[in-house]
Amino acid sequence: MPPAGTAKMEPMIIEPMGLDKPTRKVTHTVEPEIFEPAPLSTALIAYLNLGLLVIFGYIRDFMRLWGYESNIGAKEFGNEGFAPLYHEFESFYHRNVYHRGSMLTAAPLAGTPGATIDIIEREWGEHLSSFKLTEKTKTYLNVGSYNYLGFAENDGFCSKETIKEIAKTGAGVSSPRKELGTLQIHEDLEELVCEFVGKPAALVFGMGFGTNSLNMPALMDKGCLLISDELNHSSLILGARLCGAKIAVFKHNDTADLERVIRKSIVMGQERTRRPWRKILIVVEGLYSMEGTMCDLPAIVALKKKYKIYLYVDEAHSIGALGETGRGVAEHFNVDTDDIDIMMGTFSKSFGACGGYIAGDKSTIEHLRRESHAHSYASPMSPPIARQVISSMTAIMHTDDGKRRLRHLQLTPGTLEMN
Fold first, then answer.
1. What's the confidence (pLDDT) of residue 113?
2. What gap in Å lies between CA 379 and CA 228, rounded to an integer?
3. Pick from 234, 264, 218, 242: which is nearest to 376 by CA?
4. Would you tell me the crossing angle of helices 383-398 and 400-411 to the nearest 10 degrees?
5. DSSP code of 96?
6. Is 263 or 409 the better-scoring residue by pLDDT?
7. Buried-exposed string 385-397: b where 16+ CB fall within 10 A, e elsewhere
8. What are the tens digits of pLDDT across the range 72-120?
9. 189 with 336: CB under 8 angstroms?
10. Arithmetic mean of pLDDT over the chain
């Protein structure tokens, strides 16, 4: 199997799936991944600035010790014999570095996260130790949110449907899904997710992070092997640690290294006993948000079939954004969704809401209904949020406005390109 980024796929036919335009051939090439190193001058300036903050921080702490400057740090007292609540350097960093940088970060928002965004201006106290909000706002270019298709808006079809849902069913459910928290709108959303991603069953959750971290323990346990990309999201890493399975890591998007890990794991078996693994699961992301790279899904599926193991694909950033009709990385590479055992995604990106889903075969989803902590104990998705997801997903599937938003995202220079 060639390394990721070296194999060029043959032209393939992409079905329009509801788009009012003729079928066309699309050639996808997995380009070699190039991570441009930071220029030496930029790196030196960044480290120099950090070093200066640390040096001046020690000087300021010395001045505070002798009373020349007011102390803005928290002090512990009455805890003799107990472990300190604050680590010494952690407290130092928060007091002298983070506080000074908070002028440029953690800004309170005053509007929807569109192409531009309104920020509330703040008045800072002495030594930047505190601030108070003013009534003034300032408009900035927004390059930090993941409102990919613009559905997180305060006007339009989706927001109006959401407001109607609040009047109809209220803002919350106040019971876990497994008890009294399943409403008709949850089941309607799950049916729509099945139709959208192309799987027979699905289960939705109120939190995207918890969709990974709280469901992985229901899928894997002791005696199983979880093979993870080294740059997987922290929710996947937490879920892998919680499940109790053995974790093996392969180099980012390197299918040659993935095959090496698979072969070694199958040959060696479990530690000490050398018995075969009860289950082996590959866990990857469709689109890695921090690196801007896509997984080499066709090659990974080929390995899954070759070694008869399972595949879990996190489509948090790719669902609704990649593919001819927004169906994600599987549609982008023309991979049959039957070849992906578990498809996970979130609603906080392309759909302008929150929460997540897991889609798979009916037996897997029924197992999660019984065993998932996120389904049994966590608060379910609120009805207005579910309505927001239904409205935006329906718009992507069936309305000209939704298709226009998707085409605009995919044809914007520097985002997604289809040759």
1. 86
2. 28
3. 218
4. 80
5. I
6. 263
7. bbbbbbbbbbbbb
8. 666 677 777 787 777 778 888 888 888 777 777 778 888 888 888 899 9
9. no
10. 86
Q: What are phi and psi of 184, to 5 degrees?
A: -60, -35
Distance CA 345, CA 335 (A): 17
**CA separation for the pair 419, 327 (Å, rounded):** 18
Whether 239 and 213 have beta carbons less than 8 Å apart is answered as yes
Give pLDDT, residue 94: 82
Distance CA 311, CA 364 (A): 13
User: To 10 degrees, what angle do helices 297-307 and 255-268 make?
Assistant: 20
pLDDT (mean) for 229-240 = 95
For the chain, the residue count is 419
Query: Residue 289: what are its φ and ψ, rounded to 5°?
Result: -70, -35
How far apart CA 379 and CA 172 sit, in angstroms, is 9
Task: Tell me how far CA of residue 321 lies from CA of 19, 75, 186, 196, 240, in angstroms.
Answer: 15, 48, 23, 13, 26
- Mean pLDDT for 35-44 is 84
